[in-house]
Amino acid sequence: MDSKDIKKNSYFEMTIEDLSSKGEGVGKINEFTIFVKGALPEDKIEVKIVKVKKNYGYGKLIRIIKASPMRVTPVCPYTKRCGGCQIQHMDYQAQLEYKRKKVIDSLERIGKLTNIKVHPTIGMENPFHYRNKAQFPVGYKDGNVLIGLYSPGSHEVIDISSCHLQPQISIKILSIIKNFIKDNKIPVYNEEEHKGLIRHILIRTAFFTKEIMVCIIINGKKLPQKEKLIKELNKISDIKSIVLNHNTKKTNVVLGEEITTLWGQDYISDYIGEVKFEISPLSFFQVNPIQTQVLYEKALEYADLTGEETVWDAYCGIGTISLFLAKKAKKVYGVEVVEAAIEDAKRNAKINNIDNVEFFVGKAEEIIPKAYKEKGIKADVIVVDPPRKGCDETLLETMAEMNPEKIVYVSCDPGTLARDLKILSEKGYKIEEVQPVDMFGHTMHVETVVLMCASS
């Protein structure tokens, strides 16, 4: 038998060897690669082939013949249907080891970087109920209001009555809103027809102050019977903000730009370490505050500031890392392309009485070279925390030209991290050490902090 015999609806036994970037098990049948959702490395399984491409195929897990030693029973009843967790059926320690392996594999395969010191992944004490932000789509089917999460690869709403990644209070809030929609016959948004009102529910929960924000995203200007909803939500004592977000565009983007405060504050407050932040519905704020502090403290440790340094923080967002750094640096410059984020950053600096930080709106690859060449602003340390696509190559070239003593790279994508580290390595920077941090337990995501030093 060869790969030509692997056809749709055929059945095979196979052993899983690895995980894909999406969390699917990966193995081979006669050297033909098959992806199987729900399978783990070292699982021996029976699969049904459901799709065959030129060089690979997809199988459905029919039966586990011999379970992987890293397999556990998921605590969540929605694991197989929901897209929130990809590897909750994997032992947590095995998840941490796999994420370290993912970083090493990317460094070696993409960056051609070998013999790099990659520490064990720093995990969570409790890898459940760690998210401080949740966006729940609202749907309608067979006369029932649905609020939950999307099924993987679709916009089918899976109605949930629990979620092991969210604070438990979030589910109580969803129940109140669902009853409000049903009792008052509020129309639910239909994305195909671009009709109806309620689109999504956004809940932000401050882990340290315990303050809660409830944001209802609507396809319109007003929420009928809003007083009834405010009254019901106010039965939860920690709710400090109830707002509407107006998104009237036919789009998959969740949030619109306009906000109306229905009750209370238009923001909630929380802390990362000793730094206080005001968080609005549109603010970017790390969703796992416990591990964010771990991540930023590691970045600060790598920066090894004495109080005399000038630091650039590229892709600074609302200033979270900048304000951490400013406590130990002489001067910090932050740059971010989103104007609203910079407004938040300036406000957060003021709240914390931090006056040795300056923020710029614009692309890091444009602002930093200009500041260097026209104003002579030279950094002793550069910290970068780019989006998933990584750093612009122009920025990497400028960073190397400025020749800071240290570059601290914070990454949410091992692939683009490896690509950028390769470029910086070729420009004279040596990778000293790499620290993976688990910010998103039971998912395939891994954050990484890297210390690079100028070669002497």
Q: What this model shows, in words?
A:
It is a single chain. The protein folds into 3 domains: 3-66, Nucleic acid-binding proteins (OB fold (Dihydrolipoamide Acetyltransferase, E2P)), CATH 2.40.50.140; 98-125 and 288-454, Rossmann fold (3-Layer(aba) Sandwich), CATH 3.40.50.150; 133-272, OB fold (Dihydrolipoamide Acetyltransferase, E2P) (Beta Barrel), CATH 2.40.50. Strand 16, helix 6 and strand 17 form a beta-alpha-beta unit. It has helices at residues 92-109, 168-183, 226-233, 289-303, 320-326, 339-351, 364-375, 393-402, 414-426, and strands at 11-19, 25-29, 32-36, 44-52, 56-66, 133-141, 144-150, 157-159, 198-205, 212-218, 239-246, 258-264, 268-272, 275-279, 310-314, 331-336, 357-361, 381-384, 406-411, 429-437, 447-454. Helices cover 25% and strands 31% of the residues. The protein contains 9 helices and 21 strands. The strands form 4 sheets. The protein has a 7-stranded mixed sheet. A 7-stranded mixed sheet has the order 17-16-15-18-19-21-20, sandwiched between helices. With 456 residues, it is an alpha/beta fold.
Number of strands: 21
The percent range for helix content is 10-25%
How would a textbook summarize the main sheet?
Answer: 7 strands, mixed
Strand order in space, largest sheet: 8-7-6-9-10-11-12
Task: Output the helix-strand order.
Answer: EEEEEHEEEHEEHEEEEHEHEHEHEHEHEE
Brief descriptors of the model:
31% strand; 456 residues; alpha/beta; seven-stranded mixed beta sheet; OB fold (Dihydrolipoamide Acetyltransferase, E2P); Rossmann fold; 3 domains
